[in-house]
Prior knowledge:
By secondary structure, this protein is mostly helical. It contains three helices and no strands. The protein has helices at residues 5-27, 31-36, 42-72. α1 (5-27) packs across α3. The longest helix has 31 residues, at 42-72. The chain starts with a helix and ends with a helix.
Amino acid sequence: MQARPLDWTALTLVIIGAINWGLIGFFKFDLVATLFGGMDSLLSRIVYALVGLAGLYCISLYSKLGNTQSTTNK
């Protein structure tokens, strides 16, 4: 599987989102909101939107993983 820069960017954003959700779940601390001026700030909303889009994009990685596994099993 050849990873493209978009794959790496999306994966990085998904990891940032996962860490942020973990912080919210365990400590009630929203790191994105803290860094970018609150949940309602434009910059925070942009980060949240990019993380969401990255998560949707990462759905396509399932097919890439499936193709990689099927070719290595032959």
